[in-house]
TrEMBL record:
Keywords: DNA-binding, Repressor, Transcription, Transcription regulation. Residues 7-61 form the HTH lacI-type domain. This is Ribose operon repressor. CDD domains: HTH_LacI, PBP1_LacI_sugar_binding-like. Coiled coil: none annotated.
Length: 349
């Protein structure tokens, strides 16, 4: 066989000593092939460097063997973890994953969705960057939603973190450490994730007979710089006593820690900070960032499994809430044995 010629199923059959049809059935997972024959054909395919023509297979089956994933920010390690989980699960099923980042831009997202349609992917996992996602009816492909916006679409299968459970984990730990009313660094007001986070905080406060209105709140982008600037604004406010902060994601929390250092203060001696997401970089910060970790990789895996159900026309159309866990590091001061003069977060003078 010429080195310039692509190996064919005929080359595999000849080397394995079987017919062309037998070789084809062995490589497509047919059940009426003995294990010994299948193994012989697989070895022959590997030896000659044969790869199935997935385009031709797709034309016959109506499937491309490809899935799409559109996420808002692949530079955020949490979303990268989601992508890894989705990719691993797709690979287990012999499928490929096309990954796109919308950078929180609805127009960019629309372009990616159009590309997926043109690529004739079998289905897509989407985190809509706009809570008024209006392209669903025109998308024309099986899909599963991830992220907070999914709750606005009850007829679409979706997977996400249990935000209420996660926020409660963080707040319970803050209370245990002597921080009954932390300041909050949240995302933009346009995002449903901000409303869900704030709702969980308010419910927790009401249960403890704490007025949610005393909480200091700063908004910002879900980035390191967004957290840094929000933290500067919080520290510029006059207050008494120790400041505790709950940030809506770890990148914002890491930016907040940078702002504390920039101001010549110390975390956790002067300021306590807890994050949300569980990205690896929080472990390497100094001090290490205490955080509530979302199961990014598990979300990716479950989303792909849900997409398989959509593709096979057997979806349950339900929202799967996945539990989060607390990761203890060193960014929270323990004030539980001290009675602060005033409630942190309410100390305006």
């Amino acid at each position: 066989m010429s080195r310039n010629r692509r190996p064919t199923i005929v080359d595999v059959a000849e080397l394995a000593g079987v017919s062309k049809s037998t070789a084809a059935r062995a490589l497509t997972g047919s059940t009426n092939i003995t294990d010994e024959t299948r193994e012989r054909v697989v070895r022959a395919a590997s030896a000659v460097g044969y790869e199935r023509n997935h385009l031709a297979v797709g034309m016959r089956s109506g499937r491309s063997g490809m899935l799409g994933l559109v996420m808002p920010d692949i530079a955020n390690p949490f979303w990268a973890d989601v992508a890894r989980g989705a990719q691993d699960r797709a690979a287990q099923a012999g499928m490929s994953l096309l990954v796109f980042s919308s950078d929180w831009d609805p127009d960019v997202e629309a372009t990616h969705l159009q590309t997926l349609r043109r690529a004739r992917v079998d289905g897509a996992i989407i985190n809509p960057v706009s809570d008024s996602f209006d392209d669903l009816d025109r998308f024309g492909l099986p899909c599963v939603f991830i992220g907070s916006s999914a709750e606005r679409f009850p007829d679409v299968s979706s997977v996400g973190s249990d935000i209420a459970q996660a926020v409660r984990l963080g707040l319970d730990r803050l209370v245990q450490m002597g921080h009954p009313a932390p300041a909050l660094i949240l995302g933009p007001k346009s995002r449903l994730a901000r409303a869900r986070f704030l709702r969980a905080v308010h419910e927790h406060c009401v249960e403890r007979d704490v007025d949610p209105g005393i909480l200091d709140i700063e908004d910002g982008e879900y980035t390191v710089e967004g957290g840094r600037e929000a933290m500067k604004r919080l520290m510029a406010r006059a207050r008494v006593g120790h400041l505790a902060v709950f940030a809506a994601n770890d990148m914002m929390a890491l930016g907040a820690m940078m702002a504390v250092r920039d101001a010549g203060l110390d975390c956790p001696r002067d300021v306590s900070i807890i994050g949300f997401d569980g990205i690896p970089s929080g472990e390497f910060a100094w001090p290490g960032l205490t955080t509530v970790a979302k199961p990014g990789r598990d979300i990716g895996e479950r989303a792909v499994e849900g997409l398989f159900d959509e593709i096979e026309h057997k979806p349950e159309h339900r929202r799967i809430y996945m539990p989060c866990r607390l990761i203890e590091r060193g960014s929270l001061a323990d004030l539980s044995t001290h009675a602060p003069k005033r409630i942190a977060g309410a100390g305006r003078v």
